[in-house]
Write a structure and sequence with these properties.
- By secondary structure, this protein is mainly β.
- Helix content is 2%, strand content 38%.
- The chain contains 1 helix and 29 strands.
- The strands form 7 sheets. It has a 5-stranded mixed beta sheet, with no helix packed on it. Strands 3, 4, 5, 6 and 7 form a 5-stranded antiparallel beta sheet that branches.
- It is globular.
- 47% of the residues are buried.
- The N terminus and C terminus are likely disordered.
Amino acid sequence: MPSARHWLASLGMVLSSSSVAQTPPEIEFDLVASGLDRVTGITATAVLPETVWITEQVGRVRVVQNGILRAQPFLDLTGIVLSSGFEQGLTGFALSPAFPANPFVYVHYIRADNASVVARFHTLPGPLLAADPLSQTVLLTLVEPHPTHNCNEVKFGPDGYLYIGCGDGGPPFTPVYDPQALNDLHGKILRIDVNNIPIGQNYGIPADNPYVGTPGALPEIWALGLRNPYRFNFDVLTGDLWLADVGQSTYEEIDWVPSGTPSGINFGWNRMEGFHCYPAEPCNQHGLQPPVIEYTHDVGCAVIGGLRVRNSDVPPAEGAYIYADFCTGTIYATRPQDNAWAVQSLGIIAAMPTSFGITAQGQLWIGTYGVGDAKVYRILQVERIFQDGFESKNSERNQAARAIPSRI
């Protein structure tokens, strides 16, 4: 049978490094906050438009209020979070969809025994916006055999359920767990109900999860076949899922799941890497969902997923899905064009990007990696001054080249 790559090519859907439009920089970066520890998330809600939550890998959730980083953390879990490994720590944070009326927040972190933990906390009473670190309710734990490819992202979908991204458990080239196995949660997107919880259970299972009632299958599984879904997000306009799966030997990939697609999607790992059989041709591609974008390690090292930008104040990004590469700092925008996805490089940040977020005012923010010296920037449109392309520069843009740690 023809490969997924050949099938998509017939539709004009395959995108690779050679198809990226190389243009003068469209964006620059304005410093919002510094002195952070490995930013892993940027979260906002329209209900509290002057507040943005910044997640630090060391185990803290910070808040930026009225443009200023507050000294006191919103939530401090440094006493229980293990963040010594490159991919360990506090890596997921989500507000209840009805926050703050429903005063719960949800996190993913790695604890001292190397297990992944998804937990709920509630806010403290009083005028200071903060969560109670002693209010933890553990919802789910998962043994992690290696400090890479753990669970990471937690996001509420438009259906009100909590989605949890879990990597294949590592190590990088010989994962302990099979991401195709239905009796294991590694290498999957999980979907649980945190509002309708049966007595004696930590969470409920949505009745339409794809493997409910399947003998031997775990009912939490919503999608499978993932290596390291470090970042994913839902389009606030359409409800589509956008997911970046960090590749292994050669390819990075972006996956797109339109709203209404039946659950039970198999993204292909470890039978496929990007559009390609892994480790070599041929392979059985029946039932696998191919990505919409891939790029090779000649171009970058690890994809950092972002979000579909809606109602932003950055015209070059509006309507596009924004993502980045961890090692090169290149920021990409992809948007539909002639029944395909066209990719454009918007610019390069002189840091290692780790996460994106958009504020209630439509400001597009980006967080960076750094142990104690990570930063959050606001992305701005470059102001073109002369027709020859001279543009304004932010003082932070031309920082010295940085050392690059091992790939995510």
